[in-house]
Amino acid sequence: MVWIYSVLSLFVVVALITDMWKMIIPNVLTVSMVIVGLILNVMLFGLEQLIPSLIGALVSFVVMFVLYMIGAVAAGDVKFFAGVGALVGMQFSLYSILYSVIYAGIIGIFILLFKNKVKRYVHQFFNHMIQLVTLKKVAFHFDHEETTSFPFMVAVAPAIYTVMFL
Predict the structure, then answer these.
(1) Is 150 helix (H, G, I), strand (E, B) or coil?
(2) Does the residue 121 lie in any domain?
(3) What span, in angstroms and rounded, lies between the C-alpha atoms of 80 and 27?
(4) Quick count: other Cβ atoms within 10 Å of Cβ 151?
């Protein structure tokens, strides 16, 4: 498992650097990660590890694709987690996704606090709730002056190391 964690760490560092630098995780990295994950698992654990590795890649891809469809992550993040699933399996990857979302939420809160937007968003939320209850109106729209985003790998990297060391 040390070899797999070492290879995963290398991919995480490269993805983190490219995501912070260009806000993209290149396809050459994500596709390489899936291929290396499949080959490495077969080399280290035998052919019987191919199916669990493929399932890890597929399940991770599907879960992240749902997040992509709602606009929470970018396509590179989806493919990156397919690589995580191929390298370390479904359970590790799903825990990493969970921790990534938690860390991203914490980072997002700090960004909002730093930009002093929390008060306005909370006020808008409660106004929407009041409208929903009193007028039976279902329209949740928050006024966004600008998009508040950050490279998701900033949350993914600590999440993967959290799972790795737990």
Answers:
(1) coil
(2) no
(3) 9
(4) 23
Instruction: Give the tokens for residue 15.
Output: 């993805």
* 76-135 confidence digits (pLDDT tens): 999 999 999 999 999 999 999 999 999 999 998 888 777 766 677 777 777 777 777 776
CA separation for the pair 101, 128 (Å, rounded) = 25
Q: What residue type is 89 in one-letter code?
A: G
Residue 147 lies in a domain: no
Measured in residues, the chain has a length of 166
Contact assessment for residue 37 and residue 53, using Cβ atoms and an 8 Å cutoff? yes
End-to-end CA distance of the chain: give it in Å, rounded: 14
- Cα 54 to chain centroid distance, Å, stands at 19
Collapsing DSSP to helix, strand or coil, 140 comes out as coil
Question: Domain for residue 134, yes or no?
Answer: no
Q: Which residue range(s) make up the domain with 62?
A: 2-115+152-165
Q: How many domains does the chain have?
A: 1
Q: Is residue 21 part of a domain?
A: yes
Give the pTM: 0.81
The H helix count followed by the E strand count for the chain is 7, 0
Give the span between the Cα atoms of 141 and 154, in whole angstroms.
27
